[in-house]
Amino acid sequence: MKTWTTALLGGAVVIALVAPTGAQEIRQDRKELRQDRRDIRSDRRDIREDRKELKDTVKSGDKDEIQEARKDLKADRKDLRSDRRDRREDRRELRRDIKDRKQDQ
User: Fold this and answer.
1) Residue 35: what are its φ and ψ, rounded to 5°?
2) I need a surface site. Which of 53, 66, 78, 103 has the fewest CB within 10 A?
3) pLDDT tens readout for residues 53-75
4) List of residues 6+ apart from 50 with CB closer than 8 A
């Protein structure tokens, strides 16, 4: 009987500790999504600037600068893809956490 009581009490403590964690995970997921959106906006802004820089550099005709501007543009596009991937993963994580929270209730 003492073992069952201890097990039930231990289970209750674990549930009490896990429930707030679910809400905290959801808040953290939303915070990460906001940061992902900021990163994506920043990447888009950088790409626009890089395109303008590349256009101006092409007009100047300096091959080394053109190559450097293309590398910058390529790097910013890669960052954008990475940030979009992060956003997708964070959205999936948020959905999973919300689903888990609903099942626990």
Assistant:
1) -65, -40
2) 103
3) 999 999 999 999 999 999 999 99
4) 69, 72, 73, 76
